[in-house]
């Protein structure tokens, strides 16, 4: 049962362009939405996260946009760089003290020079 | 990797053999998790722990057991490995004061 649907599966963006990855969820009890970045052979690394009380969060070139009514959230990478080439995972959880993160299936991003 | 180590990093084993993977943290975090990562599935939670000797099942717990006898160590055991358990296994930790969950470097397990 896939509770978080992520798209696209893969993405090619030119250097300097904007990368956009989308996720949709069904469980309205989710109240924490992180994005993880994973390089080959490494563990996922927390990139940025948002709570549903805000519609947007920005950290450097990375922005999360959150639409509570549509149950969707997205990651925007501005001025994409070849070093951003990685797999990105969205996730969601209900905060019960600990997190039982439910992950999307991942997006493989390639930023061409 | 936020003070998290996993051992072994790579293992090849035969069907039917028991396997134990170890996660060790130096952050003194309360919560620890085991995930498996497979193409097309993202990461899926196997088991988690909310304290010493306190564990519970995740989404894909069949065929796996865990133990946590110390705050810093969380063990994942495959009692009788099957080929469907070939995967990359990640340990993660999180603390009491925020939502952030940090992952270890992973263990690549191949069951032949």
Protein architecture, described:
The complex is a heterodimer of chains A (about 110) and B (about 110). Chain A has about 110 residues and is an all-beta fold. Chain A has a single domain (about 5-110), classed as Sandwich (Immunoglobulin-like), CATH 2.60.40. Chain A is about 0% helix and about 50% strand. Chain A has no helices and eleven strands. In chain A, the strands form two sheets. In chain A, strands 2, 4, 5, 9, 10 and 11 form a six-stranded mixed sheet that branches. In chain A, a hairpin with a 2-residue loop joins β6 and β7. The N and C termini of chain A lie far apart (about 40 Å). With about 110 residues, chain B is an all-beta fold. Chain B has a single domain (about 5-110), classed as Immunoglobulins (Immunoglobulin-like), CATH 2.60.40. Helices cover about 0% and strands about 60% of the residues of chain B. Chain B has no helices and eleven strands. Chain B has strands at about 5, 10-15, 20-25, 30-40, 40-50, 55, 65-70, 75-80, 85-95, 100-105, 105-110. In chain B, strands 2, 4, 5, 6, 9, 10 and 11 form a seven-stranded mixed sheet that branches. Chain B has a four-stranded antiparallel sheet with strand order 1-3-8-7, with no helix packed on it. Chain B is globular and about 40 Å long. The mean pLDDT of chain B is about 95.
Q: Oligomerization state of this entry? A: heterodimer
**How many domain units of chain B?**
1
How many domains of chain A? Answer: 1
Report helical residue fraction of chain A.
under 10%
- Per CATH, the superfamily of chain A is Immunoglobulins
